[in-house]
Amino acid sequence: MAVQLNYIAGEQKASRSGDTKEVVNPVNQQTVGEIQLSNEQDLNEAVEAAWNAKKAWKKLAGAERGSYLYKAADLLEQNVDNIAETMTKEMGKTLPEAKGETMRGAAILRYYAGEGMRKTGDVIPSTDSGAFMYTTRAPLGVVGVITPWNFPVAIPVWKIAPALIYGNTVVFKPATETAVTAGKIMDCFYEAGLPEGVLNMVTGPGSVIGQGLVEHPKVAGITFTGSDTTGKGIGQAAFARGAKYQLEMGGKNPVIIAADADLDKAVEGTVSGAFRSTGQKCTATSRVLIHSSVKEAFMQKLFTRMKDINIGDGLQEGVWMGPCASEAQMNSVLAYIEKGKEEGAKLVYGGNRWTSGEYKDGYFVEPTVFDEVKSHMAIAQEEIFGPVIGVLTFENIEEAFELANDTNFGLSASIYTQNISSMLQFIEDVDAGLVRINAETAGVELQAPFGGMKDSSSHSREQGEAAKEFFTSIKTVFVKG
Ligand SMILES: NC(=O)C1=CN([C@@H]2O[C@H](COP(=O)(O)OP(=O)(O)OC[C@H]3O[C@@H](n4cnc5c(N)ncnc54)[C@H](OP(=O)(O)O)[C@@H]3O)[C@@H](O)[C@H]2O)C=CC1
Ligand SMILES: O=C(O)CCC(=O)C(=O)O
Protein backbone atom coordinates (compact mmCIF):
# COMPACT_ATOMS: atom_id res chain seq x y z
CA MET A 1 0.00 0.00 0.00
CA ALA A 2 1.46 3.35 -1.06
CA VAL A 3 2.39 5.79 1.69
CA GLN A 4 0.30 8.96 1.76
CA LEU A 5 2.74 11.70 0.76
CA ASN A 6 2.74 15.37 1.66
CA TYR A 7 1.66 17.98 -0.90
CA ILE A 8 4.16 20.79 -1.08
CA ALA A 9 4.65 23.39 -3.82
CA GLY A 10 2.61 21.50 -6.38
CA GLU A 11 4.24 18.13 -5.79
CA GLN A 12 3.68 15.05 -3.69
CA LYS A 13 6.68 14.72 -1.42
CA ALA A 14 8.17 12.16 0.91
CA SER A 15 8.83 13.39 4.43
CA ARG A 16 12.42 13.91 5.45
CA SER A 17 11.69 12.04 8.66
CA GLY A 18 11.14 8.70 6.94
CA ASP A 19 8.74 7.78 9.76
CA THR A 20 5.31 6.44 8.94
CA LYS A 21 2.19 5.25 10.75
CA GLU A 22 -0.44 2.75 9.77
CA VAL A 23 -4.04 3.96 9.66
CA VAL A 24 -6.48 1.21 10.64
CA ASN A 25 -10.18 0.58 10.18
CA PRO A 26 -11.93 0.88 13.58
CA VAL A 27 -14.27 -1.98 12.60
CA ASN A 28 -11.63 -4.66 12.15
CA GLN A 29 -8.16 -3.07 12.47
CA GLN A 30 -7.41 -3.77 8.81
CA THR A 31 -4.90 -1.40 7.29
CA VAL A 32 -6.50 1.46 5.39
CA GLY A 33 -3.27 3.24 4.54
CA GLU A 34 0.04 4.46 5.77
CA ILE A 35 0.75 8.08 6.50
CA GLN A 36 3.92 10.04 7.12
CA LEU A 37 4.94 11.39 10.49
CA SER A 38 6.52 14.49 9.03
CA ASN A 39 8.92 16.77 10.81
CA GLU A 40 9.61 20.50 11.16
CA GLN A 41 11.71 20.61 8.00
CA ASP A 42 8.75 19.39 5.96
CA LEU A 43 6.54 21.95 7.63
CA ASN A 44 9.00 24.78 6.95
CA GLU A 45 9.15 23.79 3.31
CA ALA A 46 5.35 23.88 3.05
CA VAL A 47 5.12 27.27 4.76
CA GLU A 48 7.84 28.65 2.45
CA ALA A 49 5.90 27.37 -0.57
CA ALA A 50 2.70 29.04 0.67
CA TRP A 51 4.63 32.23 1.47
CA ASN A 52 6.14 32.38 -2.02
CA ALA A 53 2.77 31.78 -3.69
CA LYS A 54 0.75 34.35 -1.78
CA LYS A 55 1.51 37.48 -3.80
CA ALA A 56 0.50 36.09 -7.19
CA TRP A 57 -2.55 34.31 -5.76
CA LYS A 58 -3.83 37.43 -4.06
CA LYS A 59 -3.47 39.40 -7.30
CA LEU A 60 -5.74 37.06 -9.29
CA ALA A 61 -9.31 38.23 -9.81
CA GLY A 62 -11.73 36.60 -7.37
CA ALA A 63 -13.55 34.94 -10.28
CA GLU A 64 -10.30 33.33 -11.40
CA ARG A 65 -9.62 31.97 -7.93
CA GLY A 66 -13.21 30.75 -7.94
CA SER A 67 -12.70 28.85 -11.19
CA TYR A 68 -10.22 26.53 -9.41
CA LEU A 69 -12.76 25.87 -6.67
CA TYR A 70 -15.46 25.01 -9.23
CA LYS A 71 -13.07 22.50 -10.80
CA ALA A 72 -12.18 21.02 -7.43
CA ALA A 73 -15.91 20.69 -6.64
CA ASP A 74 -16.50 18.75 -9.86
CA LEU A 75 -13.59 16.44 -9.08
CA LEU A 76 -14.77 15.85 -5.51
CA GLU A 77 -18.18 14.94 -6.87
CA GLN A 78 -16.75 12.63 -9.55
CA ASN A 79 -14.70 10.82 -6.88
CA VAL A 80 -17.45 10.66 -4.27
CA ASP A 81 -17.56 6.85 -4.06
CA ASN A 82 -13.85 6.44 -3.56
CA ILE A 83 -13.53 9.31 -1.08
CA ALA A 84 -16.57 8.24 0.94
CA GLU A 85 -15.45 4.64 1.12
CA THR A 86 -12.03 5.71 2.37
CA MET A 87 -13.66 7.93 4.98
CA THR A 88 -15.88 5.10 6.21
CA LYS A 89 -12.90 2.76 6.44
CA GLU A 90 -10.75 5.34 8.23
CA MET A 91 -13.16 6.58 10.88
CA GLY A 92 -16.27 4.41 10.78
CA LYS A 93 -19.00 6.83 9.67
CA THR A 94 -21.63 5.02 7.59
CA LEU A 95 -21.22 5.13 3.82
CA PRO A 96 -24.42 7.17 3.18
CA GLU A 97 -23.24 9.74 5.73
CA ALA A 98 -19.76 9.78 4.18
CA LYS A 99 -21.21 10.26 0.69
CA GLY A 100 -23.49 13.01 1.95
CA GLU A 101 -20.53 14.73 3.56
CA THR A 102 -18.44 14.51 0.39
CA MET A 103 -21.27 15.99 -1.67
CA ARG A 104 -21.57 18.69 0.96
CA GLY A 105 -17.85 19.39 0.41
CA ALA A 106 -18.57 19.94 -3.31
CA ALA A 107 -21.46 22.28 -2.44
CA ILE A 108 -19.24 24.27 -0.05
CA LEU A 109 -16.61 24.64 -2.78
CA ARG A 110 -19.22 25.93 -5.21
CA TYR A 111 -20.63 28.36 -2.66
CA TYR A 112 -17.19 29.86 -2.03
CA ALA A 113 -16.28 29.79 -5.74
CA GLY A 114 -19.24 32.17 -6.17
CA GLU A 115 -17.87 34.42 -3.43
CA GLY A 116 -15.15 35.40 -5.88
CA MET A 117 -17.81 37.41 -7.75
CA ARG A 118 -19.49 39.00 -4.74
CA LYS A 119 -18.90 42.36 -3.14
CA THR A 120 -15.85 42.98 -1.00
CA GLY A 121 -16.77 46.23 0.71
CA ASP A 122 -19.08 49.18 1.25
CA VAL A 123 -19.10 52.80 0.30
CA ILE A 124 -19.39 54.92 3.45
CA PRO A 125 -20.23 58.62 3.22
CA SER A 126 -17.34 60.75 4.41
CA THR A 127 -17.88 63.96 6.38
CA ASP A 128 -15.62 65.53 3.76
CA SER A 129 -17.84 66.13 0.74
CA GLY A 130 -14.83 66.06 -1.57
CA ALA A 131 -13.67 62.64 -0.50
CA PHE A 132 -14.62 59.09 -1.41
CA MET A 133 -14.53 56.58 1.44
CA TYR A 134 -15.02 52.85 1.13
CA THR A 135 -13.94 49.53 2.61
CA THR A 136 -12.12 46.73 0.88
CA ARG A 137 -10.65 43.50 2.18
CA ALA A 138 -7.16 42.05 2.20
CA PRO A 139 -6.24 38.39 2.74
CA LEU A 140 -4.25 37.49 5.87
CA GLY A 141 -1.42 35.79 3.95
CA VAL A 142 -0.49 32.20 4.83
CA VAL A 143 -3.22 30.42 6.81
CA GLY A 144 -2.75 27.20 8.82
CA VAL A 145 -5.73 24.83 8.72
CA ILE A 146 -5.83 22.23 11.53
CA THR A 147 -8.74 19.80 11.39
CA PRO A 148 -10.21 16.87 13.37
CA TRP A 149 -11.20 13.39 12.23
CA ASN A 150 -14.98 13.55 12.69
CA PHE A 151 -15.78 15.40 9.43
CA PRO A 152 -12.73 14.50 7.32
CA VAL A 153 -14.04 16.25 4.18
CA ALA A 154 -16.52 18.92 5.26
CA ILE A 155 -14.39 20.64 7.90
CA PRO A 156 -11.18 20.88 5.83
CA VAL A 157 -13.20 22.12 2.85
CA TRP A 158 -15.16 24.69 4.83
CA LYS A 159 -11.86 26.13 6.03
CA ILE A 160 -9.72 25.75 2.88
CA ALA A 161 -12.33 27.03 0.39
CA PRO A 162 -12.93 30.43 2.04
CA ALA A 163 -9.22 30.80 2.85
CA LEU A 164 -8.42 30.43 -0.85
CA ILE A 165 -11.24 32.46 -2.34
CA TYR A 166 -10.42 35.46 -0.16
CA GLY A 167 -6.83 35.33 -1.44
CA ASN A 168 -4.89 33.43 1.25
CA THR A 169 -2.55 30.53 0.68
CA VAL A 170 -2.81 27.48 2.91
CA VAL A 171 -0.85 24.86 4.82
CA PHE A 172 -3.24 22.09 5.85
CA LYS A 173 -2.55 19.72 8.75
CA PRO A 174 -5.26 17.03 8.81
CA ALA A 175 -6.07 14.78 11.76
CA THR A 176 -3.76 11.79 11.78
CA GLU A 177 -6.72 9.36 11.93
CA THR A 178 -8.13 10.62 8.63
CA ALA A 179 -5.07 11.74 6.70
CA VAL A 180 -5.68 9.29 3.84
CA THR A 181 -9.07 10.86 3.14
CA ALA A 182 -7.38 14.26 3.38
CA GLY A 183 -4.95 13.16 0.65
CA LYS A 184 -7.91 12.43 -1.62
CA ILE A 185 -9.24 15.96 -1.13
CA MET A 186 -5.79 17.28 -1.99
CA ASP A 187 -5.78 15.19 -5.19
CA CYS A 188 -8.93 17.05 -6.29
CA PHE A 189 -7.37 20.45 -5.64
CA TYR A 190 -4.13 19.49 -7.40
CA GLU A 191 -5.98 18.03 -10.39
CA ALA A 192 -7.95 21.27 -10.56
CA GLY A 193 -4.61 22.89 -11.37
CA LEU A 194 -4.14 25.22 -8.40
CA PRO A 195 -0.92 27.22 -8.86
CA GLU A 196 2.15 25.82 -7.10
CA GLY A 197 2.30 26.51 -3.37
CA VAL A 198 -1.25 27.86 -3.00
CA LEU A 199 -2.40 24.80 -1.05
CA ASN A 200 -0.03 22.46 0.79
CA MET A 201 -0.63 19.54 3.12
CA VAL A 202 1.70 18.11 5.75
CA THR A 203 0.69 15.07 7.81
CA GLY A 204 2.17 14.24 11.18
CA PRO A 205 1.72 14.59 14.92
CA GLY A 206 -0.36 17.48 16.19
CA SER A 207 2.33 18.29 18.73
CA VAL A 208 4.90 18.74 15.93
CA ILE A 209 3.14 19.82 12.74
CA GLY A 210 0.08 21.44 14.34
CA GLN A 211 2.07 23.20 17.04
CA GLY A 212 4.75 24.14 14.49
CA LEU A 213 2.14 25.80 12.28
CA VAL A 214 0.71 27.73 15.21
CA GLU A 215 4.14 29.01 16.20
CA HIS A 216 5.48 29.68 12.69
CA PRO A 217 6.26 33.37 12.19
CA LYS A 218 5.21 33.26 8.52
CA VAL A 219 1.73 31.89 9.31
CA ALA A 220 -0.64 34.84 9.77
CA GLY A 221 -3.78 32.97 10.79
CA ILE A 222 -4.78 29.62 12.28
CA THR A 223 -8.20 28.03 11.88
CA PHE A 224 -8.80 25.00 14.10
CA THR A 225 -11.56 22.55 14.94
CA GLY A 226 -11.06 19.95 17.64
CA SER A 227 -10.90 19.48 21.37
CA ASP A 228 -11.28 22.15 23.99
CA THR A 229 -7.84 21.55 25.49
CA THR A 230 -5.92 21.60 22.20
CA GLY A 231 -7.93 24.60 20.99
CA LYS A 232 -7.22 26.68 24.06
CA GLY A 233 -3.49 25.93 23.78
CA ILE A 234 -3.54 26.98 20.12
CA GLY A 235 -5.39 30.19 20.97
CA GLN A 236 -2.82 31.12 23.60
CA ALA A 237 0.17 30.38 21.38
CA ALA A 238 -1.31 32.26 18.41
CA PHE A 239 -2.24 35.23 20.58
CA ALA A 240 1.25 35.34 22.10
CA ARG A 241 2.81 36.06 18.71
CA GLY A 242 -0.03 38.22 17.37
CA ALA A 243 -1.45 35.75 14.86
CA LYS A 244 -5.17 35.72 14.11
CA TYR A 245 -6.94 32.56 15.24
CA GLN A 246 -10.31 30.91 15.02
CA LEU A 247 -11.25 27.95 17.23
CA GLU A 248 -14.25 25.63 16.97
CA MET A 249 -14.28 23.30 19.94
CA GLY A 250 -16.75 21.22 21.86
CA GLY A 251 -20.40 21.18 22.76
CA LYS A 252 -22.64 19.76 25.47
CA ASN A 253 -25.78 20.30 23.50
CA PRO A 254 -29.19 20.05 25.19
CA VAL A 255 -32.54 19.12 23.73
CA ILE A 256 -35.52 20.32 25.78
CA ILE A 257 -38.67 18.22 25.56
CA ALA A 258 -41.51 20.44 26.81
CA ALA A 259 -44.79 19.11 28.21
CA ASP A 260 -46.56 19.94 24.94
CA ALA A 261 -43.89 18.48 22.62
CA ASP A 262 -44.78 16.20 19.73
CA LEU A 263 -43.11 13.17 21.32
CA ASP A 264 -42.64 11.19 18.12
CA LYS A 265 -40.76 14.05 16.50
CA ALA A 266 -38.81 14.66 19.72
CA VAL A 267 -37.71 11.01 19.88
CA GLU A 268 -36.66 11.04 16.24
CA GLY A 269 -34.69 14.27 16.74
CA THR A 270 -33.05 12.97 19.89
CA VAL A 271 -31.99 9.66 18.35
CA SER A 272 -30.70 11.30 15.20
CA GLY A 273 -28.96 14.13 17.09
CA ALA A 274 -27.37 11.86 19.65
CA PHE A 275 -26.42 8.70 17.79
CA ARG A 276 -25.78 9.50 14.12
CA SER A 277 -22.05 9.47 13.43
CA THR A 278 -21.84 7.56 16.73
CA GLY A 279 -22.32 10.84 18.61
CA GLN A 280 -18.99 12.13 17.28
CA LYS A 281 -20.18 15.58 16.31
CA CYS A 282 -19.58 18.77 18.22
CA THR A 283 -23.27 19.45 17.57
CA ALA A 284 -24.43 16.05 18.89
CA THR A 285 -27.24 15.94 21.45
CA SER A 286 -25.79 14.91 24.78
CA ARG A 287 -28.28 16.18 27.37
CA VAL A 288 -32.02 15.46 27.22
CA LEU A 289 -33.99 17.83 29.45
CA ILE A 290 -37.50 16.51 29.85
CA HIS A 291 -40.67 17.71 31.54
CA SER A 292 -41.66 15.25 34.26
CA SER A 293 -45.23 14.91 32.92
CA VAL A 294 -44.09 13.38 29.60
CA LYS A 295 -40.96 11.61 30.76
CA GLU A 296 -42.36 8.11 30.99
CA ALA A 297 -44.04 8.25 27.58
CA PHE A 298 -40.93 9.76 25.99
CA MET A 299 -38.59 7.15 27.50
CA GLN A 300 -40.78 4.27 26.29
CA LYS A 301 -40.80 5.65 22.76
CA LEU A 302 -37.06 6.37 22.95
CA PHE A 303 -36.17 2.81 23.96
CA THR A 304 -38.45 1.36 21.28
CA ARG A 305 -36.77 3.51 18.64
CA MET A 306 -33.27 2.71 19.94
CA LYS A 307 -33.90 -1.02 19.57
CA ASP A 308 -34.01 -0.39 15.80
CA ILE A 309 -30.50 1.09 15.70
CA ASN A 310 -28.53 -1.22 13.48
CA ILE A 311 -24.88 -1.23 14.57
CA GLY A 312 -22.05 -2.53 12.38
CA ASP A 313 -19.61 -1.81 9.59
CA GLY A 314 -20.70 1.43 7.94
CA LEU A 315 -19.84 -0.05 4.54
CA GLN A 316 -22.68 -2.57 4.90
CA GLU A 317 -26.09 -1.57 3.62
CA GLY A 318 -28.63 -0.95 6.36
CA VAL A 319 -26.07 -0.19 9.07
CA TRP A 320 -27.14 2.98 10.88
CA MET A 321 -24.37 3.42 13.45
CA GLY A 322 -20.70 2.59 13.06
CA PRO A 323 -17.88 2.30 15.60
CA CYS A 324 -16.04 5.00 17.50
CA ALA A 325 -13.31 6.40 15.27
CA SER A 326 -10.41 4.87 17.21
CA GLU A 327 -9.54 2.69 20.16
CA ALA A 328 -8.60 5.79 22.18
CA GLN A 329 -11.97 7.36 21.42
CA MET A 330 -13.82 4.17 22.41
CA ASN A 331 -11.86 3.94 25.66
CA SER A 332 -12.63 7.56 26.44
CA VAL A 333 -16.38 6.97 25.90
CA LEU A 334 -16.33 3.79 28.03
CA ALA A 335 -14.49 5.70 30.78
CA TYR A 336 -17.27 8.32 30.77
CA ILE A 337 -19.85 5.56 31.10
CA GLU A 338 -18.01 4.22 34.16
CA LYS A 339 -17.79 7.75 35.52
CA GLY A 340 -21.55 8.21 35.08
CA LYS A 341 -22.21 5.06 37.12
CA GLU A 342 -19.78 6.18 39.83
CA GLU A 343 -21.42 9.58 39.98
CA GLY A 344 -24.77 7.95 40.73
CA ALA A 345 -26.56 8.40 37.41
CA LYS A 346 -28.85 5.49 36.54
CA LEU A 347 -27.80 3.49 33.48
CA VAL A 348 -31.08 2.60 31.73
CA TYR A 349 -29.95 1.57 28.25
CA GLY A 350 -26.73 0.15 26.76
CA GLY A 351 -23.53 1.07 28.54
CA ASN A 352 -21.16 -1.56 27.18
CA ARG A 353 -18.64 -2.13 24.47
CA TRP A 354 -20.54 -3.83 21.63
CA THR A 355 -18.81 -7.02 20.51
CA SER A 356 -21.39 -8.93 18.53
CA GLY A 357 -20.19 -11.83 16.30
CA GLU A 358 -17.75 -10.78 13.57
CA TYR A 359 -17.41 -7.36 15.24
CA LYS A 360 -15.81 -8.59 18.44
CA ASP A 361 -12.62 -6.57 17.90
CA GLY A 362 -14.34 -3.43 16.60
CA TYR A 363 -14.32 -0.17 18.56
CA PHE A 364 -18.08 -0.15 19.05
CA VAL A 365 -20.03 1.20 22.01
CA GLU A 366 -23.73 0.51 22.53
CA PRO A 367 -26.07 3.49 22.28
CA THR A 368 -26.34 4.46 25.92
CA VAL A 369 -28.84 6.35 28.08
CA PHE A 370 -28.33 7.56 31.65
CA ASP A 371 -31.35 8.68 33.67
CA GLU A 372 -31.40 10.65 36.93
CA VAL A 373 -28.46 12.74 35.78
CA LYS A 374 -27.68 15.82 37.86
CA SER A 375 -26.32 18.92 36.21
CA HIS A 376 -23.10 18.99 38.25
CA MET A 377 -22.03 15.50 37.12
CA ALA A 378 -19.10 15.16 34.72
CA ILE A 379 -21.35 13.32 32.24
CA ALA A 380 -23.58 16.41 32.18
CA GLN A 381 -20.69 18.86 31.85
CA GLU A 382 -17.93 17.32 29.73
CA GLU A 383 -18.00 16.48 26.04
CA ILE A 384 -18.19 12.68 25.71
CA PHE A 385 -18.11 12.53 21.89
CA GLY A 386 -19.78 9.15 21.72
CA PRO A 387 -23.24 7.55 21.67
CA VAL A 388 -24.21 8.54 25.21
CA ILE A 389 -27.02 10.77 26.47
CA GLY A 390 -27.95 11.92 29.96
CA VAL A 391 -31.57 12.60 30.93
CA LEU A 392 -32.39 15.42 33.36
CA THR A 393 -35.95 16.14 34.49
CA PHE A 394 -37.57 19.56 34.98
CA GLU A 395 -40.88 20.87 36.32
CA ASN A 396 -41.20 24.22 34.57
CA ILE A 397 -39.75 25.72 31.43
CA GLU A 398 -37.61 28.34 33.20
CA GLU A 399 -35.87 25.51 35.04
CA ALA A 400 -35.23 23.83 31.66
CA PHE A 401 -33.59 26.97 30.31
CA GLU A 402 -31.38 27.22 33.40
CA LEU A 403 -30.30 23.60 33.00
CA ALA A 404 -29.65 24.14 29.28
CA ASN A 405 -27.29 27.01 30.11
CA ASP A 406 -25.61 25.27 33.05
CA THR A 407 -22.46 24.29 31.12
CA ASN A 408 -19.30 25.99 29.90
CA PHE A 409 -20.21 25.13 26.32
CA GLY A 410 -22.70 26.96 24.10
CA LEU A 411 -22.70 25.46 20.64
CA SER A 412 -26.17 24.15 19.80
CA ALA A 413 -29.45 23.86 21.70
CA SER A 414 -32.85 22.61 20.67
CA ILE A 415 -36.41 22.60 22.02
CA TYR A 416 -39.43 20.53 21.12
CA THR A 417 -42.60 22.47 21.93
CA GLN A 418 -45.74 23.76 20.24
CA ASN A 419 -45.96 26.82 22.45
CA ILE A 420 -44.82 29.96 20.64
CA SER A 421 -44.01 31.79 23.89
CA SER A 422 -41.70 28.98 24.98
CA MET A 423 -40.01 29.06 21.59
CA LEU A 424 -39.47 32.81 21.73
CA GLN A 425 -38.23 32.73 25.32
CA PHE A 426 -35.86 29.89 24.44
CA ILE A 427 -34.44 31.79 21.45
CA GLU A 428 -33.82 34.77 23.71
CA ASP A 429 -32.51 33.00 26.80
CA VAL A 430 -30.41 30.11 25.57
CA ASP A 431 -26.63 30.60 25.36
CA ALA A 432 -25.95 28.85 22.08
CA GLY A 433 -24.66 29.79 18.65
CA LEU A 434 -27.15 27.44 16.98
CA VAL A 435 -30.73 27.58 18.25
CA ARG A 436 -33.02 24.91 16.87
CA ILE A 437 -36.81 24.72 17.26
CA ASN A 438 -38.50 21.36 16.75
CA ALA A 439 -35.31 20.13 15.10
CA GLU A 440 -32.32 18.11 16.33
CA THR A 441 -29.23 19.86 17.72
CA ALA A 442 -27.02 18.64 14.84
CA GLY A 443 -27.49 20.06 11.37
CA VAL A 444 -25.38 22.74 9.81
CA GLU A 445 -26.09 24.57 6.57
CA LEU A 446 -23.07 25.73 4.62
CA GLN A 447 -24.51 29.15 3.75
CA ALA A 448 -25.26 30.10 7.39
CA PRO A 449 -22.87 31.16 10.16
CA PHE A 450 -21.65 28.30 12.32
CA GLY A 451 -20.05 28.59 15.75
CA GLY A 452 -20.79 28.76 19.44
CA MET A 453 -20.93 30.90 22.53
CA LYS A 454 -18.91 30.52 25.76
CA ASP A 455 -16.14 27.87 25.52
CA SER A 456 -17.42 26.32 22.30
CA SER A 457 -15.54 28.68 20.04
CA SER A 458 -13.34 31.73 19.96
CA HIS A 459 -16.46 33.89 19.50
CA SER A 460 -15.97 33.78 15.77
CA ARG A 461 -18.15 32.15 13.15
CA GLU A 462 -17.33 29.93 10.20
CA GLN A 463 -19.15 29.19 6.94
CA GLY A 464 -21.48 31.34 4.88
CA GLU A 465 -20.55 34.98 4.62
CA ALA A 466 -19.24 34.91 8.18
CA ALA A 467 -16.04 33.21 6.98
CA LYS A 468 -14.97 36.49 5.39
CA GLU A 469 -14.49 38.03 8.83
CA PHE A 470 -11.76 35.59 9.73
CA PHE A 471 -9.99 35.15 6.42
CA THR A 472 -9.66 38.85 5.59
CA SER A 473 -8.77 42.15 7.20
CA ILE A 474 -10.82 45.26 6.44
CA LYS A 475 -9.09 48.27 4.90
CA THR A 476 -10.92 51.57 5.19
CA VAL A 477 -9.92 53.67 2.21
CA PHE A 478 -10.21 57.46 2.06
CA VAL A 479 -9.57 59.01 -1.36
CA LYS A 480 -9.30 62.70 -2.00
CA GLY A 481 -8.47 64.33 -5.31
N1 LIG B 1 -15.24 19.99 18.12
C1 LIG B 1 -15.06 18.94 17.38
O1 LIG B 1 -15.63 18.86 16.31
C2 LIG B 1 -14.14 17.87 17.82
C3 LIG B 1 -13.94 17.62 19.15
N2 LIG B 1 -13.10 16.62 19.51
C4 LIG B 1 -12.95 16.37 20.96
O2 LIG B 1 -11.59 16.11 21.22
C5 LIG B 1 -11.41 14.85 21.85
C6 LIG B 1 -10.06 14.27 21.45
O3 LIG B 1 -9.93 14.17 20.04
P1 LIG B 1 -8.53 14.52 19.34
O4 LIG B 1 -8.51 13.98 17.97
O5 LIG B 1 -7.41 14.14 20.24
O6 LIG B 1 -8.62 16.14 19.23
P2 LIG B 1 -7.48 17.19 19.07
O7 LIG B 1 -8.07 18.52 19.38
O8 LIG B 1 -6.27 16.81 19.82
O9 LIG B 1 -7.12 17.12 17.51
C7 LIG B 1 -7.64 17.97 16.52
C8 LIG B 1 -6.54 18.38 15.55
O10 LIG B 1 -5.53 19.12 16.26
C9 LIG B 1 -4.25 18.51 16.07
N3 LIG B 1 -3.44 18.76 17.25
C10 LIG B 1 -3.25 17.95 18.32
N4 LIG B 1 -2.42 18.54 19.21
C11 LIG B 1 -2.08 19.73 18.69
C12 LIG B 1 -1.25 20.80 19.14
N5 LIG B 1 -0.61 20.76 20.30
N6 LIG B 1 -1.13 21.89 18.35
C13 LIG B 1 -1.77 21.97 17.18
N7 LIG B 1 -2.57 20.98 16.69
C14 LIG B 1 -2.72 19.89 17.44
C15 LIG B 1 -4.59 17.06 15.81
O11 LIG B 1 -3.51 16.37 15.22
P3 LIG B 1 -3.37 14.77 15.42
O12 LIG B 1 -4.56 14.17 14.78
O13 LIG B 1 -2.13 14.45 14.72
O14 LIG B 1 -3.33 14.54 16.90
C16 LIG B 1 -5.81 17.21 14.92
O15 LIG B 1 -5.41 17.55 13.62
C17 LIG B 1 -12.64 14.07 21.41
O16 LIG B 1 -12.93 13.08 22.32
C18 LIG B 1 -13.70 15.14 21.39
O17 LIG B 1 -14.23 15.36 22.67
C19 LIG B 1 -12.43 15.88 18.59
C20 LIG B 1 -12.60 16.08 17.26
C21 LIG B 1 -13.52 17.09 16.77
O1 LIG C 1 -22.97 18.91 12.47
C1 LIG C 1 -22.22 19.22 11.54
O2 LIG C 1 -22.54 19.08 10.37
C2 LIG C 1 -20.87 19.80 11.82
C3 LIG C 1 -20.45 19.53 13.19
C4 LIG C 1 -19.06 19.91 13.44
O3 LIG C 1 -18.58 20.90 12.98
C5 LIG C 1 -18.22 19.07 14.27
O4 LIG C 1 -18.69 18.10 14.81
O5 LIG C 1 -17.03 19.38 14.36
UniProtKB/TrEMBL annotation:
<comment type="similarity">
    <text>Belongs to the aldehyde dehydrogenase family.</text>
</comment>
<dbReference type="InterPro" id="IPR015590">
    <property type="entry name" value="Aldehyde_DH_dom"/>
</dbReference>
<dbReference type="InterPro" id="IPR054869">
    <property type="entry name" value="AlphKGSA_gudD"/>
</dbReference>
<feature type="active site">
    <location>
        <position position="248"/>
    </location>
</feature>
<dbReference type="GO" id="GO:0016620">
    <property type="term" value="F:oxidoreductase activity, acting on the aldehyde or oxo group of donors, NAD or NADP as acceptor"/>
</dbReference>
<protein>
    <submittedName>
        <fullName>Aldehyde dehydrogenase (NAD+)</fullName>
    </submittedName>
</protein>
<dbReference type="InterPro" id="IPR016160">
    <property type="entry name" value="Ald_DH_CS_CYS"/>
</dbReference>
<dbReference type="Pfam" id="PF00171">
    <property type="entry name" value="Aldedh"/>
</dbReference>
<dbReference type="InterPro" id="IPR016162">
    <property type="entry name" value="Ald_DH_N"/>
</dbReference>
<dbReference type="InterPro" id="IPR016163">
    <property type="entry name" value="Ald_DH_C"/>
</dbReference>
<dbReference type="InterPro" id="IPR029510">
    <property type="entry name" value="Ald_DH_CS_GLU"/>
</dbReference>
<keyword id="KW-0560">Oxidoreductase</keyword>
<dbReference type="InterPro" id="IPR016161">
    <property type="entry name" value="Ald_DH/histidinol_DH"/>
</dbReference>
<feature type="domain" description="Aldehyde dehydrogenase">
    <location>
        <begin position="17"/>
        <end position="477"/>
    </location>
</feature>
